[in-house]
Amino acid sequence: PGIPNLLPRDRMARYLQRGSCGHRGEGLRATTALAPGHLLYSASPYACIPSKKARGSICEHCFCRKESLLRCSQCKMARYCNATCQKLAWPEHKCECKCLRSINPQIPTDMVRLVARI
C-alpha cells in the first residue's frame, strides 16, 4: 500500500529519522523512498495573526480572504468571515480584545500582537 497524503505521528516515525545536519543544525531525513508531493508533517501554529497589510481582508480565525468581514463589536479591530469563526476565535481573542479596547485608537504592531498571544 502507498503512503497516505498525511502521515499520523506514529506512522511518521517509520518514514523519517531525526538527525544532525552538521553546521546546519537538526533536520529530518527520509528512511525510505517517498513519492513527491506527500505531506509528511503538519501542525497548527502556536500563535498567528494576519499581517497589518492583510488586516481587514482576512478572517482572524480561518485566514480566508473575503471582501466583507464581520468586525468584533468590542475592539472594532478583529475581523471574521462569519459568526462561527468569531465564536471559535473568542477564547483566544478574549484577552486580546480587552487590551485592544484599552489602547483604542492606537493599533499595536504585528509583532506586539503576536507576542501578546503567546
Report what the structure shows.
With 118 residues, this protein is α+β, with helices and mostly antiparallel strands. Helices cover 31% and strands 12% of the residues. The chain is built from 3 helices and 4 strands. The longest helix has 21 residues, at 83-103. It is elongated and about 55 Å long. Residues 1-6 have low confidence and may be disordered.
Topology:
Blueprint: H1 9-15, E1 16-20, E2 26-30, E3 70-71, E4 79-80, H2 83-103, H3 110-117
Antiparallel strand pairs: 1-2, 3-4
Distance between termini? 41 Å
Number of strands: 4
Helix content: 25-40%
Percentage of residues in DSSP E strands:
5-15%
Q: Summarize model confidence as the mean pLDDT.
A: 83
Q: Helices and strands, in N-to-C order?
A: HEEEEHH
Rg over CA atoms: 20 Å
Structural class: alpha+beta
How are the strands ordered across the major sheet?
A: 1-2
Shape: elongated
Helix segment tally: 3
Largest sheet: 2 strands, antiparallel
Return residue spans where pLDDT drops below 50 for at least 5 consecutive residues. Answer: 1-6
Summarize this structure as a short list of keywords or feature phrases.
two-stranded antiparallel sheet; elongated; 3 helices; alpha+beta; 118 residues; disordered N terminus
Offer a concise description of the structure:
With 118 residues, this protein is α+β, with helices and mostly antiparallel strands.
